[in-house]
Amino acid sequence: MNRQLLSVIIPTFNRASFLPACVGSVRAAGVPAQIVIVDDGSTDNTAEVVATLGEVEYIRQGNAGVSAARNRGVEIAAGNYLAFLDSDDTWRSGVVGRLIDALETDPVIEVAFADAWVHDHFQGTEQRLTDYLGRDSFERLPGRDLGEGLRLLDRSSFFRAMIRRNQVFLGSAVIRKQAVVAIGGFDPELRGAADFEFMLRLAHRGSFLYCDQPLADYVKHAGSMSADLDHMNHDFALALRKVLEKCQLCEEEHQTVRSWRRQMLYYLAYNCYDRGDLTLARRRLRELWREFGLDAHSLALSALCRLPGGVLRQLRRVRRSWLGAS
Fold it and tell me: How far is 17 from 219, CA to CA, in rounded Å?
C-alpha cells in the first residue's frame, strides 16, 4: 500500500498552542501524510508556531468559518484519502493505517471511521464515543463483521441512525477524496453542525466501515463550538433542512428527516421559553408553524409564552423543583 495517499486537513482559528500536539500526533500515527493547516484568519501567533512544525502546507485566509477552511484544504490536498482533524484534537497511533488498508482493499467503502475518546471538561468525564452514544444500539446496527474489530455497516440502516444522531466523530474518519468532491464538501452556512450534515450526505451516498479501536481524542472545553448549545441545536435543525434540499431521499427517509427537524424546531422554541426568552420562543414557534403547521404541543407552548411574567416564573420554579425531586 502507498501510505502517501493520505492528506490530513487541520483548520485552525486562534489555537496556536494546540497545534504542536495535533501535528505531532499525526506524525506519530504510523502513516506518513501530507499535513495541510488552514489558518482561518487567526489573530494570535499561529503563523510563528506553524513555522516551527517542519514540513506542512500552510494556508492563511480571511476568517470565513471552519467549513470554508476545510474546503480550502480539500482544494490543495494531494491524497486520494482525506482526514479532517481540528487543531485542538489529536490522534492515537496504529489505527489510521487500518482504515486506509480497508479503503484500499474494498473500493465500495467511501468512509472508514474509528471510535474516539471524548474528554468532556464540562462534566469531568472521559469515555468512548460509542459508549456516549449508546453502545448497545450502535452494536445492533445491521452490518457485516469483517473480523478484527471491523464492520461494514448496512447503508440504509446507518443513514437512518445518522438522522437521529451523528454516529461519527469527524476526526476519527478517513474519506475518499472523490466522495468529498462529489458531495460538494462542507456547507459554509453551517458552523457547529457542519460535520453532522457533511457525514449525513456521505452516509446517504455510500458505504461506511467501522473500526472499534479509538483513533482520536476529542476534547470538549470552553472554547469548543459545542459549548454554545443553543447555536449547536439551531445548526442541527438547519442541517436537517439542508439534507432535505440536497439529497434524493426515498419517502421513508424524507419523512424521518422531516420528523426529526420538526422535533428539533419545537425543542429550540421550548428551550427559549424555559430560560425566559419569550420573544425568541414565539419567533421560533412561528418558524415551526410555517413549515409544519399547527399542533397541540406547539399551541400549548405558545399559550404559556403569553402568560404574565410572574405566573411563568412560578410555573418554571415548580417544574424545576418537581424534576429535582423526581
Answer: 14
For residues 207 and 302, state if they share a domain.
no
CA angle 234, 238, 240 (to 5 degrees): 120
Note whether 48 and 113 are same-domain residues.
yes
Q: What is the pTM of this model?
A: 0.90
Residue keyed to cell 419523512: 255
**For 265-314, how does the pLDDT look when each residue is reduced to its tens digit (9 = 90+)?**
999 999 998 888 999 999 999 999 999 999 999 999 999 988 876 666 67
The count of residues in the chain is 326
Domain boundary among 229, 257, 274: 229
Q: Per-residue pLDDT tens for 138-185?
A: 889 999 999 999 999 999 999 999 999 899 999 999 999 999 999 999
User: How many structural domains comprise the chain?
Assistant: 2
Nearest to 240 by CA among 250, 253, 225, 227: 253
Q: Does 281 map to a domain?
A: yes
Same domain, 280 and 141: no
| Contact indicator for 262, 294 with CB cutoff of 8 Å | no
Residues 9 and 149 in one domain: yes
What SS3 state is found at 236?
Answer: helix
Same structural domain for residues 113 and 178? Answer: yes
Domain that holds residue 267: 249-325
SS (H, E, C) 78-112: CCCEEEECCCCCEECCCCHHHHHHHHHHCCCEEEE
Q: Where are the alpha helices (DSSP H) in the chain?
A: 19-27, 46-50, 66-76, 96-105, 129-133, 135-139, 155-164, 177-182, 194-205, 229-246, 251-274, 278-292, 296-304, 309-325
